[in-house]
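Notes from hallway chat w/ T.B., transcribed later so I don't forget. T.B. wanted the structure written out for a chain they're using in a teaching module, and asked if we could keep both sequence and structure tokens in one place. Agreed to drop them here.
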Amino acid sequence: TRDPAWRQRAQTWQAGLASETTHDSTDLGFKIFDTYGVGYQLTGDASYKKVVLDAAGTVARRYDPDVGMFRVWDDRDDRTQYRVNIDAMMNMELMFWAGQNGGDPRYAEMAEHHAQRTLRDLVRPDGSTYMFAGYDQNTGARLNHFTKQGYATDSTWSRGQAWAVYGFTTAYRYTRDPRFLDAARRTAEWFVRHLPPDHVPYWDFDVPDKATAP
């Protein structure tokens, strides 16, 4: 709209997120990029870019080259488990963009490796998705699948499926790797094919009692 009132509101709202750049969380990706990252793209304000790059540096410390993915939920120095969920694909744009716009180029490489392994380990052959995978951080081997917010390990949690569509679309935009475009299409097609008649998904596509909340 170019209405300065909206810009002022956005600046005021996002200001409270600046201190998050040191928060040890993978979710800095969508918290910071969708505010400061988009803000920088719209305004060119160098202070916004610094916030984005600082956040990327924090997220980068959650990456293990043996696993080839960013861990989620666990503390970054946790030696008892290494958990990765489909949601983390929502956070990769921060790393892709930072690695291609003045941050360490390895950030983008990390994001690409994460997307590749997510495609391999969390997207099923039919285009549906698992919520979580657990890994051995000493060997990088995948140990299991499980869920925390879905109905069951082998069900398809609708929010996670949507984030897969978004995340692989973003990965393709930054890499032009056709495998990511194919993943975006397959996960999107699966989502649409399994919608109920009113086109509003339940919290899990496979929940037997549609009135049951998670």
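Follow-up for T.B.: Residues 33 and 94 are 5 Å apart (CA to CA). Might be a good example for the class.
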